[in-house]
Amino acid sequence: MKASWEKIEKNVGVLEVEVNEDRVSEALDKAFKKVVAKVNVPGFRKGKVPRAMFEKKFGIESLYQDALDFILPEAYVQAVQEAGITPVDRPEVDVEQFGKGQTLKFKATVTVKPEVALGEYKGLEIEAADVNVTDEEIQDELDRQQQRHAELAVVEEGAAENGDITVIDFEGFVNGEAFEGGKAEKYSLELGSNSFIPGFEDQVVGMAIGETKDVNVTFPEEYQAEELKGQAAVFKVTLHELKRKNLPALDDEFAKDVSEFDTLDEYKADIKTRLEEKKAKDAEVKKEVDVVAKASANAEVEIPAAMVETELAQMIKEFERRLSGQGLNLELYYQFSGQNEAALKEQMKDDANTRVRNNLVLEAIAAAEKIEASDADVDAEIAKVAEQFKKTTEEVREIFEANGSLEGMKEDLALRKTVEFLLSNSK
């Protein structure tokens, strides 16, 4: 097989490949065995039609597509390896010659991983984060715990306030017409949760039990329902019930109820310790983010759109997994947020671009500094995973090898070591 690579613009090039006649013949043989098992020819059992008779009746061309399906992927992968390129998207393949007794000639237009021109990445100045814990931060945490342990009490009289749990009926209208999905009865809504269309909850504040009111809102431009985007709507809302949080007193009894401590002062001291630990960890993470961001900003690289799209798809999957942990899914999220997949992708696009750029720059620094993950690094990481999931290291290694994830682990470890290198060489 022959393969040649020529870059034509930025991160796009053409891979020209020629595959010899023997491999073409083998692919045609495989295609015949696949197809002949499915055809019916009078006088012959399935799979027993002679090759010459098959070609006479159906034509050799009837085998070409299946033969190409056999030969093209394998030839493409081999050509990529020979050319020493790293594709980041599906190639556009143009078959120029293929047939019985011929070589296969094809061109593949390929988007490849871009080259990075590194700038300064040693001696970068990183600002230290403030890790001191203030009295206000301790009080904020106490207030959160107070909210968590509040008791709900039914409100018999009075108006709805921010933070109340309301039970409402509502029906939405656009241009006087009710729309699908805009009606519910005895719906529980916490005012101030921002779970409804902007402006809805603010107008429920102040309503009295039994009151019916028109709530005027405008659907966001990025709302998932196409017919409602940017539309003005009126919701007829009836308030049936109100529940209000009764906050416990912040005293020694509260400390005993929510912690292992006997006094509020001891509990506050523990909160301070935990906040200090969190701030210290957050400060380390911030230093890592800042040093990578500075090294990345100093580099020059043109990122292919395909890499950003791939990263976006991965980010959507990660987001969906997080939603699953909260008992939600993407469909419910879109309903609650008024977004759709396109809007969510647009929201994540800048972060996806940053992640791709940072990884490319870190890979380039790792290559320049010859930073690699050693066998000992891999063994240590496998041991951590084994301890976390209560498995043996042999079991964990087998799982990674079976999934083809071991190489990905080595790449991730190398990137981590590169970040450590940047930090150790920063000011």
Given as residue ranges, the uncertain stretches (5+ residues, pLDDT < 50) are none
Q: Give the name of the CATH superfamily of the largest domain.
A: Trigger factor, C-terminal domain
β-sheet strand percentage: 15-25%
* Largest β sheet strand count, sense and barrel closure: 5 strands, antiparallel
N/C terminus separation = 52 Å
CATH architecture of the largest domain: Orthogonal Bundle
Q: Average pLDDT across residues?
A: 93
Question: How many structural domains can be distinguished in the coordinates?
Answer: 3
CATH class of the largest domain: Mainly Alpha
Helix content: 40-55%
Structural class computed from helices and strand pairing: alpha+beta
CATH topology of the largest domain: Trigger factor, domain 2
Element string (H = helix, E = strand): EEHHHEEHEEEHEEHHHHHHHH
Radius of gyration: 32 Å
Q: How many strands?
A: 9
> How would the global form be characterised?
extended
Which oligomeric state applies?
A: single chain
